[in-house]
Specification:
The protein is 78% helix and 0% strand. The protein is mainly α and 120 residues long. The chain folds into two domains: 62 residues; 36 residues, no CATH class. It starts with a helix and ends with a helix. This is Secreted protein.
């Protein structure tokens, strides 16, 4: 009698576990659950991509600025003013008053070359 009760208990327990796990599996693979998981994965990929791009842009900008500073330092002669300083001074004190005819672009380029001390 005890043996029968034991096996009936084991059978009930196994049945409950199988039904519970089965419901979870069925719920997991219903169309709505699959759509929710896909949406969550899409959101995660989007966030990771945005984070990667922001980090890449930030690191690229820092590296580019450092390389630009190296190149400017290598190209400038001893005692030569930095090109940004020359341009800023030119913008503050323009040679031509407002309302005068526009300057020829080639002449402006030649003037830049003369002021900056080098040409490419």
């Amino acid at each position: 009698m005890i043996r029968r009760l034991f096996w009936v208990g084991v059978g009930v327990t196994v049945t409950v576990v199988v039904v519970t796990k089965g419901r979870r599996v069925v719920a997991r693979y219903t169309p709505q659950a699959v759509a929710d998981r896909a949406e969550g994965l899409g959101r995660d990929v989007s966030q990771r991509s945005a984070s990667f791009l922001a980090t890449f842009r930030r690191e690229f900008t820092v590296a580019r600025d450092a390389r630009e500073a190296e190149l400017v330092a290598a190209l400038l002669a001893e005692g030569q003013a930095h090109p940004d300083d020359v341009r800023a001074a030119r913008d503050v004190h323009p040679k031509h008053a407002a309302g005068t005819p526009a300057v020829d672009p080639e002449a402006a380029t030649r003037a830049d070359e003369d002021e900056l001390g080098y040409s490419f």
